[in-house]
Amino acid sequence: xxxxxxxxxxxxxxxxxxxxxxxxxxxxxxxxxxxxxxxxxxxxxxxxxxxxxxxxxxxxxxxxxxxxxxxxxxxxxxxxxxxxxxxxxxxxxxxxxxxxxxxxxxxxxxxxxxxxxxxxxxxxxxxxxxxxxxxxxxxxxxxxxxxxxxxxxxxxxxxxxxxxxxxxxxxxxxxxxxxxxxxxxxxxxxxxxxxxxxxxxxxxxxxxxxxxxxxxxxxxxxxxxxxxxxxxxxxxxxxxxxxxxxxxxxxxxxxxxxxxxxxxxxxxxxxxxxxxxxxxxxxx
Length: 284
Fold this sequence. Notes:
The chain has 10 helices and 10 strands. It is of the alpha/beta class. β4 and β5 (122-129) form a beta hairpin.
């Protein structure tokens, strides 16, 4: 029964019984750095950085291209390369189904995107691995795209920038075919170096496994974003295997800079400018 006042108008008591409207899903993010709850739009407008602690959130391939390369300058190569299932692999579900689900969810054919673009007017070959697609693990397509990108940089005498965002190493679903990609890409980079090409490797959070153990560590200049996790096996695996307490900040980019594994740490807001500066410096 609707409650009305003496004038016949709907009572405010009735309005109080309306169900509360919930907060739209995805409006807020929990920061992994400071645990603050932050507004998603504010984070995205701030280069995917936490406004409270400056934590560097994950950045998708499309967003990273917009952040680093000149507008509308990126020309993607080999977008039609599709992964196969040489082993007929299945764990919780068949590999073919996993690939189809990842492709539908991410809009990517695999974990790597390569092509040519411009960075502050400087032409270059650009490549990136993306942890959103099976943790950025390196299968046959990832290795083939990277190898072809390196060969194009060699042929065209262009600098090469590879941004690594891979929480996984060699993709177990493809067995030895996946493992051989480490050597294949490394060999292409050796030929690129022999041709006096410039390779800048950018490490982001995370860069792990076979990616960190191969091409990501072979740059003429190796830079990283702040507090990126970089290594082969994860800290918990290392600690459990070696039975020792690990140093503070073990496998972070700051720890690796201190021990000479990387050359510089560059804040995301300065990454485009500093990469262009490195290209200019090494060109002379």
